[in-house]
Write a structure and sequence with these properties.
The protein contains 6 helices and 6 strands, in the order H-H-E-H-H-E-E-E-E-H-E-H. The chain is an alpha+beta fold and 153 residues long. Helix 3 crosses helix 4. The model has no long low-confidence stretch (mean pLDDT 88).
Amino acid sequence: MNEARLLSLLEALRAKGRVTTARRALLESLSHSDRHRTAEDLADDVRAAFPAVHRATIYRSLEALTEMGLIEHTHLGHGPAVYHLAEGAHHHLVCEACGAVIEAPATVFEDLSRGLRLACGFEVTSRHFAVMGRCRTCAELAAARLTAGRSGG
């Protein structure tokens, strides 16, 4: 883990609210992780390190950190929401075939956002959802199966 990154997060937390055991532990857990984590995963991490911290406190802390803009939650399809640090704006692409989650830079959706604003007067503000589809590997595999099916092979 990058200690400077954690210190920066804790400094931002101090500026926006109180540094509690649960909040610090959540930020540490997310800082250590290279993947998106469910609230349950994060609660297990915090409780393993600090058994006296109640689950309700952990869930309230997740909500508070989200409201402060330090973490974000995203819905990746039909499963539970996942959390990640709010650093670096990105969107989520989820493969319906293999479940891979691809982080796409926010700039990828600029044309879509602009088109929705112009055509519908709708301003896109949320990054709390995922775009479902197929990753390159699964799309190529599906195309190959389709081609093989047409050729009788």
